[in-house]
Design brief:
By secondary structure, the chain is mainly α. The chain contains 2 helices and no strands. It has helices at 2-38, 42-143. Helix 1 packs antiparallel against helix 2. The chain is rod-shaped, with a radius of gyration of 43 Å.
């Protein structure tokens, strides 16, 4: 569970960082537009070419990478939710299997007990066979 809390915290930090970065980037671009109207000499071209244009490109790439990372995290959210649902289903099925296993153990125990009872009754019946045979022989000799 700690991993889930860590993950949510990390994702929240990335979302905040992305929002902050977008705002700062927007403010910087607005300032640049305002300054470009006023400052259009060789020094401005040099600073723009050397620092500000590369900074804009780097910022756009960083924003794109963060958006991609956030998109990946959103996909992970979906996959995590699916995994949670599967975990719940596995737990439910495990409980069901454990119940069936308990029923099977009870059936086996009852079968062993009934088999023992059968063996006792079978032995008692077999013990009576000589008596039965003797009684049948007596009955045949009286009638015959």
């Amino acid at each position: 569970m700690e991993e889930a809390v860590w993950y949510v915290k990390q994702r929240s930090q990335i979302e905040e960082y992305l929002w902050t970065l977008k705002q700062r980037y927007r403010v910087l671009q607005e300032c640049r537009q305002d300054i470009e109207r006023l400052w259009q000499d060789d020094a401005a071209s040099e600073i723009n070419g050397r620092y500000l244009h590369p900074h804009r490109e780097d910022s756009e790439q960083a924003l794109a990478a963060l958006r991609q990372q956030l998109s990946s995290l959103e996909k992970i959210d979906v996959e995590l939710e699916i995994a949670k649902q599967h975990d719940l289903e596995v737990s439910r099925l495990l409980d069901e299997v454990e119940n069936f296993l308990n029923f099977a153990r009870q059936d086996i125990s009852r079968s062993h007990s009934e088999y023992g009872y059968f063996q006792e009754e079978n032995s008692a019946a077999r013990a009576e066979l000589p008596t039965i045979e003797q009684l049948i022989a007596q009955a045949n000799s009286c009638c015959g």
